[in-house]
Every structure is written in structure tokens, then in C-alpha cells.
């Protein structure tokens, strides 16, 4: 079976590897163009492009699937296209190129969390269980019929990065199984059913912690935006990056945003009980422990996050 693989970030790499391991003929890889990375803004290939080049697979770099890109895809005569977090819309003209269309691995239990940030939104919302689904790509936003699903428990300490890593591995197996079923003529996709929820791409503002909110909401948000775009707050107008905060239910006498140094721990008041800060990165500095950060404050007892 001739497969075009479309994907960009690191979470898509296990799926590419799984298809190769399963014996599929991956004829080309479609990925986003090289992008500037790091403080020096060095142009860097996407993780999927880098892996494809290691495997000797032709790479099609495209910011969007336009007429030229569609023609290049058609030139490889794929039987099916597998897509995992490519980062762009596939228009109608391209959807019809592979014989069996495009099969999308999406990291949610559709129709829950349709969109670009399903894992992040699931954690922020406090879901206990999430998962992944393979479905037939259509013009609508993640609306196509579903081939298969898997479930994954959301652990209390999970960040979006943690959960995505696990789902990328289990989802790779699901995608390979789905393509095998299609190749064998045994696939029977079913229409989506259930309550629809949307998962738009996260912005920087999604990472800001509002200390007036309950501690549990702040814990979920800080985990859901880690590693990107990251949790943050402000102090005297300066943005401070934060690693996920943990719950301290026994401390309920701090006003929202007010800090207290407790040994090597730094506590912050919320709309309910306190939370404990993880590592902290002040503007222009490296990540540091809460204790090291607090030692640099002239009067920590007077510090109030904005």
C-alpha cells in the first residue's frame, strides 16, 4: 500500500516510524517548511522532515496544500494519505487524490475537542479520560467518520507534553492498524456521535494564571499549557514564566496572588486554597528553583502577583 505521510512536530514521528515498521510503502512525506529555532533563530527542519530524511524518504515542504503541492502529491500516486498534526488545511482538490482519501490521527475521542489543541484543552477542562481517534478527513473541522479509538487516563500530574507523548506512541499503533484494515478492505468508519467540543489553538494569553480562580483550575491550566505556550504571571509589570503549580489545600489564609515563603517552598494564594510554585523564570533569566527566586526578593512578604 502506497502511503503519503503528512505531519510536522515530534508527536507525529512515532506514527511515521510505525508505518515503516509495519511494512507500508511510504512514498513521500508532507511537512511544514523549515522554521527558525532557538535564540539564534537557526532555520531548522521539522522533526518529521528530519526523520524522513534519515529514512531516505522524499520530503515535500509546504506551508499550505496549494495546487502545486497537490500536483506533487498526485505524482506519487498514493493509495492513502495518513496525516498527524501537519498544521494546515487539506482542500477538497487534494482530499480526492489518494484512492482511499486521507486518514487523520487526532488526539481526542471525537467529537470531543475538535481542533488544534485537543490534549491541552482536555487537561485545562479537567477531563479524567481522553484518547485518540483515526477518522476520514473531510472539509469540515475534524468531522469525518471514525475508524477506531483508544482511551488514555489523564494522570493528576500530567502536563500536555506528558500526555501527548503517551498518545503519540499508542496513537501510532492505532493509525497503523487502521491503514491495515483499509488495505484489507475491512475498515468500516462510523459517523461521529456525542457532544461536540472545540479545541482552538492556544495563545500566549491562555497561559496567564488568574490568581482569583480556584487552585484546581490554576493547576489544570498550568499543566495544560506546558510546555507551550507556558504558564506565566506578572510582577511589577514584568512577565514571569512558571512551571506547573501544585495544590496545597491545607493553606487557605493567603489572598489571591499573595506569596509566602515556606522553607524551600513558595506558596501563592488563589480564589480557594494556596498552590505551590514549581520552577520560575523571571524576565531575562534562566529557570530557577522557587527558593533561589525568593532569596532574590528584597521583601518577599510584600510580593503580590498581578
Automatic annotation (TrEMBL):
<dbReference type="InterPro" id="IPR011034">
    <property type="entry name" value="Formyl_transferase-like_C_sf"/>
</dbReference>
<dbReference type="Pfam" id="PF02911">
    <property type="entry name" value="Formyl_trans_C"/>
</dbReference>
<keyword id="KW-0808">Transferase</keyword>
<dbReference type="InterPro" id="IPR041711">
    <property type="entry name" value="Met-tRNA-FMT_N"/>
</dbReference>
<dbReference type="InterPro" id="IPR036477">
    <property type="entry name" value="Formyl_transf_N_sf"/>
</dbReference>
<feature type="domain" description="Formyl transferase C-terminal">
    <location>
        <begin position="201"/>
        <end position="297"/>
    </location>
</feature>
<keyword id="KW-0648">Protein biosynthesis</keyword>
<feature type="domain" description="Formyl transferase N-terminal">
    <location>
        <begin position="2"/>
        <end position="175"/>
    </location>
</feature>
<dbReference type="GO" id="GO:0004479">
    <property type="term" value="F:methionyl-tRNA formyltransferase activity"/>
</dbReference>
<dbReference type="InterPro" id="IPR002376">
    <property type="entry name" value="Formyl_transf_N"/>
</dbReference>
<protein>
    <recommendedName>
        <fullName>Methionyl-tRNA formyltransferase</fullName>
        <ecNumber>2.1.2.9</ecNumber>
    </recommendedName>
</protein>
<dbReference type="InterPro" id="IPR005794">
    <property type="entry name" value="Fmt"/>
</dbReference>
<comment type="similarity">
    <text>Belongs to the Fmt family.</text>
</comment>
<dbReference type="InterPro" id="IPR044135">
    <property type="entry name" value="Met-tRNA-FMT_C"/>
</dbReference>
<dbReference type="InterPro" id="IPR005793">
    <property type="entry name" value="Formyl_trans_C"/>
</dbReference>
<feature type="binding site">
    <location>
        <begin position="108"/>
        <end position="111"/>
    </location>
    <ligand>
        <name>(6S)-5,6,7,8-tetrahydrofolate</name>
    </ligand>
</feature>
<comment type="function">
    <text>Attaches a formyl group to the free amino group of methionyl-tRNA(fMet). The formyl group appears to play a dual role in the initiator identity of N-formylmethionyl-tRNA by promoting its recognition by IF2 and preventing the misappropriation of this tRNA by the elongation apparatus.</text>
</comment>
<dbReference type="Pfam" id="PF00551">
    <property type="entry name" value="Formyl_trans_N"/>
</dbReference>
Amino acid at each position: 500500500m502506497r502511503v503519503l505521510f503528512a505531519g510536522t512536530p515530534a508527536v507525529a514521528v512515532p506514527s511515521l516510524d510505525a508505518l515503516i515498521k509495519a511494512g507500508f510503502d511510504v512514498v513521500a512525506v508532507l511537512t511544514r517548511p523549515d522554521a527558525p529555532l532557538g535564540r539564534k533563530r537557526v532555520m531548522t527542519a521539522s522533526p518529521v522532515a528530519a526523520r524522513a530524511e534519515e529514512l531516505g524518504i522524499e520530503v515535500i515542504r509546504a506551508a499550505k496544500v496549494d495546487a502545486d503541492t497537490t500536483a506533487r502529491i498526485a505524482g506519487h500516486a498514493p493509495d492513502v494519505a495518513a496525516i498527524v498534526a501537519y498544521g494546515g488545511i487539506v482542500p477538497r482538490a487534494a482530499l480526492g487524490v489518494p484512492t482511499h482519501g486521507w486518514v487523520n490521527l487526532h488526539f481526542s475521542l471525537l467529537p470531543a475537542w475538535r481542533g488544534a489543541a485537543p490534549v491541552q484543552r482536555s487537561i485545562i477542562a479537567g477531563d479524567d479520560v481522553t484518547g485518540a481517534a483515526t477518522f476520514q478527513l473531510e472539509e469540515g473541522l475534524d468531522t469525518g467518520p471514525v475508524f477506531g479509538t483508544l482511551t488514555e487516563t489523564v494522570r493528576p500530574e500530567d502536563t500536555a507534553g506528558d500526555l501527548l507523548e503517551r498518545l503519540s506512541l499508542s496513537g501510532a499503533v492505532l493509525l497503523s492498524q487502521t491503514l491495515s484494515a483499509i488495505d484489507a478492505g475491512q475498515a468500516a468508519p462510523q459517523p461521529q456521535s456525542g457532544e461536540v467540543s472545540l479545541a482552538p489553538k492556544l495563545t500566549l494569553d491562555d497561559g496567564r494564571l488568574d490568581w482569583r480562580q480556584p487552585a484546581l483550575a490554576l493547576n489544570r491550566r498550568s499543566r495544560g499549557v506546558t510546555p507551550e505556550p507556558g504558564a506565566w504571571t506578572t510582577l511589577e509589570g514584568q512577565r514571569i514564566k512558571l512551571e506547573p503549580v501544585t495544590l496545597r489545600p491545607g493553606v487557605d489564609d493567603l489572598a489571591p496572588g499573595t506569596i509566602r515563603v515556606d522553607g524551600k517552598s513558595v506558596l501563592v494564594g488563589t480564589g480557594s486554597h494556596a498552590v505551590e510554585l514549581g520552577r520560575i523564570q523571571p524576565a531575562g533569566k534562566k529557570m530557577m528553583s522557587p527558593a533561589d527566586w525568593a532569596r532574590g526578593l528584597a521583601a518577599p512578604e510584600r510580593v503580590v502577583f498581578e
